[in-house]
Amino acid sequence: MNRFFDLSHLRGDIFGGLTAGVVALPLALAFGEASGAGPIAGVY
Predict the structure, then answer these.
(1) Which of 8, 9, 36, 37 could form a cystine bridge with 41, CB 3.0-4.6 A?
(2) Residue pair 38/30 in contact by the 8 Å Cβ criterion
(3) What is the pTM of this model?
(4) 35 contact partners, CB below 8 Å, separation of at least 6
């Protein structure tokens, strides 16, 4: 195992990743809509 990775932190890492995704997706959609390119363009 890598010395920077510990399985005891896996649950928190997964929860943190999901939280970041829940925040980032609506923000990306809003940026796409605000730019006039459409919401899906913000995701790409």
Answers:
(1) 37
(2) no
(3) 0.65
(4) 41, 42
